[in-house]
Amino acid sequence: MSKAPSDNQYFGTEKTMKILFKLAPPVMLAQLIQSLYNIVDSFFIGKFSGYALTALSVIYPMQLLICAVAVGTGVGVNTVMARFYGQKRTSKAINTAGIGTVMAVVSWFIFALISFFIIKPYALISAESEIVHEYTITYGKIIGIFSLGIFLESTWTKILQSQGDMKTPMIAQIVGALTNIVLDPILIFGMFGIKPMGVAGAAIATVIGQSLAAAITGIKGFYKPPKLNIFLPYVKQIYAAGLPNIIMQALWTVYILGLNVLLASFSDASVTVLGIYYKLQSFFFIPLNALGVCIVPVLSFNYAINRKDRCKRVFWETVAVSAAFMLLGVAIFVLLPKQSIGIFSNDTEVLNIGNVAFRIIGASFVPAALSLTFPILFQAIGKGKESIFITVLRQVVLLVPLAWVFSFAGLNYVWLTFPVTEIITCSVSMIFYKKVFHKNA
Predict the structure, then answer these.
(1) CA 109, 114, 119, 122 torsion-angle sign
(2) Which parts of the chain are coiled coil (predicted)?
């Protein structure tokens, strides 16, 4: 009988491939569901209007920021609760759960206000077309003002996970995503006596799916908040644990927003191409992201007992497996760019821009398997500064500034930002890697 993954010796003795393929599938399933939702959502919107598809690309950074705060708050709650449970201080863990729900509501209220007042000027700087502005404002206000579901679901999911309940969050996510997918065509185009709502329908389908997922997790995940006078110490602990996660995820928002603004100076079609790219690439990055999650405890355990040789082997085997999966993405993006884009848009300008963009961006996929795994390695072995440095270098220092430099040569050159960024990030990461593991080189 094989040992359970919870047995630490399992991480020190079992073959890497066996560990990865035991732990990764559930994580990959959850990410697959989310990616399919994004793709299907964009598919229906694209069939409704090319302008609406551009609006989705414009609003994407805002959605990422909402997710960053929602998930980051949940991670903080999860971390603090797990700590209290480990110390057998159950009452404090329950207090944390109750306070976490309150912080989710507070976070939603802040974003609702921001969405109401900021969405119009944001739309104006992110696209040229007045129709895109209108669609962006409509979609953005709905998903922002009515985003309570995602904040509550993220917190309640992490509360349940801290208690060992993985099944309920998975069911909630599946039901929420499927609800969204089913409602999309009904509300966008109008069916069963419901009038066509267009972009507003897509946004309403999204928030209904999120609210339903929240309701499912809330059945077990809701705890009555304690008295207000004990909130502050708990809130400090929650955000001390969750803030790094919020910041790291928010960096995605910064660079996608920057690229959107830059590409809008060329055309709305180029913004659309970037949005389609991010929806499709999430599908091919699933194995990479899932494997990254799964190797953290393996790397942490082996580095703690000075098994640097095993750490290196786990790291490079993970990169190899990730790169093998990424080759499928390379083939699709390089060989079938127009066919891939055509799933979402038949606009000639979008297809022509995407034909060049996808082939260039596709060249970045394999090195990305390395550059995105390095920060996970350094974080897992306690080298937080190196991990943050590499992430900031890639997503803030390189991506947008390089795109700006390449933009002077023309739109086609902007896409070189992606492979160049990955190559530079890999090079800098290797310097840190050799410094950390030089004794075992």
Answers:
(1) negative
(2) none
Domain boundaries in the chain?
1-34+267-441, 49-265
Express each pLDDT in 276-293 by its tens digit: 888 888 778 877 777 776
Q: How many angstroms separate the Cα of 318 from the Cα of each of 16, 19, 297, 311, 374?
A: 8, 11, 13, 11, 11
Q: How far apart are CA 436 and CA 430, in angstroms?
A: 10
Residues 6+ positions from 435 with CB-CB distance below 8 Å? none
The answer to whether the CB of 169 falls within 8 A of the CB of 217 is yes
pTM of whole model > 0.85? no
How far is 203 from 48, CA to CA, in rounded Å?
A: 13
> How many CB atoms lie under 10 A from the CB of residue 384?
12
Q: Which amino acid is at 384?
A: G
Integer Cα distance of 113 and 281 in angstroms? 31
Helix axes 417-437, 384-392, angle to 10 degrees: 170
DSSP notation for 239-272:
HHHHHHHHHHHHHHHHHHHHHHHHHHTT-HHHHH
Mean of the per-residue pLDDT values of the chain: 83
**Are the CB atoms for 345 and 46 separated by under 8 Å?**
yes
126 against 366, higher pLDDT: 366
Q: What length is written for the chain?
A: 441
Does residue 346 contact residue 266 with C-beta atoms inside 8 Å? no
Tokens of 333: 């993006």
Q: How many CA atoms lie within 13 A of 217 on its CB side?
A: 34
